[in-house]
Design goal:
single chain; alpha+beta; 8-stranded mixed beta sheet
């Protein structure tokens, strides 16, 4: 079995995600860019098995998705997104995707996660990418179009259509131009009604980013309860919107629901 130390490391990351209640049987995936450029990724059905992961529950893929070593199942339906992110972001070393509850609350409304803690400011923007997956799947099933599916993933063309036809162009437009930010910090984004992604330079950073993402989402929701519906985001990393010392900028929750950026 190849890459055993890396499999051990990825297994520990899964266990940490479980311990911190951000990974659950609703789904998710973790992956690691290996030193030789190949990708080690969690297999599908691990979520159904409540993430009882062993060293064999990973698949080794070439950057184009070709299977190099299969000791468990195939990669999940989100495999194209992981491979696309590694292609778009040369500094990306690991990716974590979860359906963590507080982040999912914002994703369910299609709105960005606000930065309300200092630990989240390092993200920069945390956008939400949008796709009406039910409509896309139904349209694809009624009128299939050719898709270039990676060999090492579950062959669910209708699900892959959402990633390839809807999310790939948005990542090219919104995420890829931020590649240079990864010289300083990792990135995070959410998918409408689906969950969150964090992309870091190594596994430990990517795990920490997911915990930060869930922390700021949870805190924003608690703020709204304490203030009667107002969230107080901090955008000091956007110089054009810096407030004078001592000033506070409040954002009513209703403004999020219009889809406006913070």
């Amino acid at each position: 079995m190849r890459y055993e130390p890396h499999r051990q490391h990825l297994t520990r990351i899964v266990q940490d995600l479980l311990a911190w209640d951000v990974l659950n049987p609703a789904g998710g995936a973790v992956s690691l860019r290996l030193p030789d450029g190949n990708v080690l990724m969690s297999c599908t059905r691990l979520a159904f098995d409540r993430w009882k992961v062993s060293l064999r529950d990973f698949i080794v893929l070439a950057p184009d998705g070709t299977v190099l070593e299969q000791t468990g199942g195939l990669g999940a339906s989100g495999t194209p997104m992981h491979l696309d992110l590694y292609r778009m972001l040369p500094r990306a070393g690991a990716i974590v995707h979860t359906h963590s509850p507080y982040t999912l609350a914002f994703a369910s409304l299609g709105i960005p996660v606000p930065s309300v803690t200092n630990r989240a400011d390092t993200f920069g923007e945390i956008p939400c990418l949008h796709a009406d997956d039910s409509t896309v799947k139904a349209r694809f099933q009624a009128e299939p179009v050719p898709l270039d599916l990676p060999q090492g993933m579950v062959q669910r063309p209708d699900v892959a259509a959402v990633n390839l036809l809807e999310y790939r162009p948005q990542m090219e437009k919104i995420i890829a131009p931020r590649a240079q930010e990864m010289d300083r910090h990792g990135l995070a984004f959410t998918l409408y009604r689906h969950g969150g992604f964090t992309v870091g330079r190594h596994l430990e950073e990517t795990l920490d980013l997911m915990l930060r993402l869930e922390e700021t989402a949870r805190t924003a929701l608690l703020q709204a309860q304490l203030t009667g519906g107002t969230v107080f985001p901090n955008r000091l990393y956007r110089p054009e919107q810096q407030s004078p010392v001592g000033a506070t900028t409040a954002t009513p929750v209703s403004s999020y629901l219009t889809g406006r950026d913070l």
